[in-house]
Design a protein that fits this description.
With 508 residues, the protein is of the alpha/beta class. It has two domains: 284 residues, HUPs (Rossmann fold, 3-Layer(aba) Sandwich); 148 residues, Isoleucyl-tRNA Synthetase, Domain 1, CATH 1.10.730. 47% of the residues lie in helices and 16% in strands. It is built from 18 helices and 18 strands. The strands form five sheets. It has a six-stranded parallel sheet, sandwiched between helices. The protein has a four-stranded antiparallel sheet with strand order 5-4-8-10, with helices on one face. The chain is elongated, with a radius of gyration of 26 Å. 44% of the residues are buried. It binds 5'-O-[(L-methionyl)-sulphamoyl]adenosine. 5'-O-[(L-methionyl)-sulphamoyl]adenosine binds next to strand 1, helix 1, helix 7 and strand 14.
Length: 508
């Protein structure tokens, strides 16, 4: 039987900036989806990369006095390194300056053109280079010094030039049908409703080429024009599948994006695909934005959250856990250092770490460091079973709607049960009164730890690998099938060591 496939993407990131929390956050969520699906038997393709064309990048390069190609080579490498340093398991890293991508863009353009969806006219209107987006006069607000600003707060400039247009207005009904027939095409629900009312408000044709700069993919047949950077960027999802050659991985199952770029993914992108007669992705999920200790994050405030700093201060897996546990994925969230420390110490060091450490050290000291022989009671069996198929099913269902925080909550419900169990059974007392029972209790605990650890692998790949070593789970057998087996008594275990350190304030 061939494995079912799963194709998940992140936005491709603009290379005009150092990686910040927003970049790490979306890619982390995609990584967890990809890792979970792999362990669950899927043939997974996980794509991330960099968005390198457009006026914004051209200007950034100019201000540094280097060519856009040099500039994008440098910054793209930084994003590639972030993927490695955060243990992201992407299968591909796409750059929009690659030949494979330019060819895909030109092919898509030609298909749209030959289907009659593109025409040449003149654009006159507002453009925000920072957002690479066109805005209607009615959407603008006034800045403090009387200048006009985009709804995002970014400055706009007046643009008047010859431009190709995409007949977006012709796709209104088909888009509304899509949202209707595929109710979870856009998640979360609140965002879906926003998109629906925006489309119902009427769509204008979209300017899809520019002539006043040249850092982009040339328009086939008219090289005075380069393609609008969003048409170019969105096509990356298709390029990476090998399109226009045979592209069995298309369509993507899931595009993960931030809420600010939902419109491009949920309106423009499906309209382009419909126009080119290509299959549509399964879902676009828009996550919320982080603030820092209650403040909006901005370069000018100097409060940008650096993912590397989090990793250095709290540890990589701790950071990964916190970002997905603290806030529902669709909501905005506030990064508070105190909350990070609490999660790290209470959930990871105390609840999970201690449970494992206590039981494994008793096994090392009192039971020859081997998986104990056990005679299990109904209560022992109940705990072990709760950490098996029912937990996996619950987590699977929650991850299928990107509810990372609730999935983690349900794993911690079982970990808490195991803590209640070990305290009530008190194996440290049984050591003197009933050593056989002590062995069964410790078996029950480490088998439960083994199970929750298998399920937690996608979120904390490094720490769970260490913990699985400590409970004697063979390295080649760590997919979710391993939940159908149990630890074999007599298996020698390595010397226990702590996997989840406590955070201690440096000056404490
Ligand atoms: N290049 C486009 C995407 C093209 S996809 C075909 C782009 N790039 S970006 O570098 O600006 O992307 C930034 C990503 O980070 C977006 O998904 C955005 O939502 C996310 N975030 C930026 N600031 C953020 C926070 N403060 N919090 C969470 N995510 C944030 O857009």
């Amino acid at each position: 039987m061939t494995a079912p496939t799963y194709y998940v993407t992140t936005p491709i990131y603009y290379v005009n900036d150092r990686p910040h929390i927003g970049h790490a956050y979306t890619t982390l969520a995609a990584d967890v989806m990809a890792r979970f699906k792999r362990l669950d038997g899927y043939d997974v393709y996980f794509l991330t990369g960099t968005d390198e064309h457009g006026q914004k990048i051209q200007r950034s390069a100019e201000s540094k006095g280097i060519t856009p190609q040099q500039f994008t080579d440098e910054v793209s490498a930084v994003f590639r390194a972030l993927a490695e340093d955060f243990n992201f398991s992407n299968n591909d890293f796409i750059r929009t300056t690659e030949t494979r991508h330019k060819l895909a863009c030109m092919e898509l353009w030609q298909r749209l053109e030959s289907a009659g969806h593109i025409y040449l006219d003149k654009y006159a209107g507002w453009y925000a280079v920072s957002d690479e987006a066109f805005y209607d006069e009615t959407e603008l607000k006034e800045g403090p010094d009387g200048t006009k600003l985009a709804p995002t707060g970014k400055p706009v400039e007046w643009v008047e030039e010859e431009s190709y247009f995409f007949r977006l207005s012709a796709f209104e009904d088909r888009l509304l049908d899509l949202y209707q027939n595929q109710p979870d095409f856009i998640l979360p629900k609140g965002r879906r409703n926003e998109v629906i009312s925006f489309v119902k408000g009427g769509l204008q044709d979209l300017s899809i080429s520019r002539t006043t700069f040249d850092w982009g993919v040339p328009v086939p047949g008219n090289e005075r024009h380069v393609m609008y950077v969003w048409l170019d960027a969105l096509t990356n999802y298709l390029t990476a599948t090998g399109w226009p050659d045979a592209a069995p991985r298309w369509p993507a199952d899931m595009h993960l994006v931030g809420k600010d770029i939902l419109r491009f993914h949920a309106i423009y992108w499906p309209a382009f695909l419909m126009g080119a007669d290509l299959p549509l992705p399964g879902r676009v999920f828009a996550h919320g934005w982080w603030t820092n200790e209650g403040e909006k994050i901005s370069k000018s405030l100097g409060n940008v959250i650096d993912p590397y700093e989090l990793k250095a201060t709290f540890g990589l897996d701790q950071t990964r856990y916190f970002l997905l546990r603290e806030v529902p994925f669709g909501n905005d969230g506030d990064f508070r250092r105190e909350a990070m420390v609490t999660r790290m110490n209470s959930d990871l060091a105390n609840n999970l770490g201690n449970l494992a450490q206590r039981s494994l050290s008793m096994i090392a000291k009192s039971l020859d460091g081997q998986v104990p022989e056990a005679t299990l009671t109904a209560e022992d069996e109940a705990l072990i079973s709760a950490a098996g198929a029912p937990l996996l099913n619950e987590v699977r269902g929650l991850l299928d709607v990107q509810s990372f925080n609730r999935a983690l909550e349900s794993v911690w419900a079982v970990i808490s049960e195991a803590n209640v169990y070990i305290d009530a059974q008190a194996p440290w007392t049984l050591k003197k009164t009933d050593p056989m029972r002590m062995a069964s209790v410790l078996y029950t605990v480490i088998e439960t730890v083994r199970r929750v650890t298998l399920i937690l692998q996608p979120v904390m790949p490094e720490s769970t690998a260490k913990l699985l070593d400590l409970v004697g789970q063979p390295t080649g057998k760590r997919d979710f099938n391993a939940l159908e087996h149990r630890l074999v008594p007599g298996t020698p275990l390595p010397k226990p060591e702590g996997v989840f350190p406590r955070y201690v304030e440096a000056d404490a």
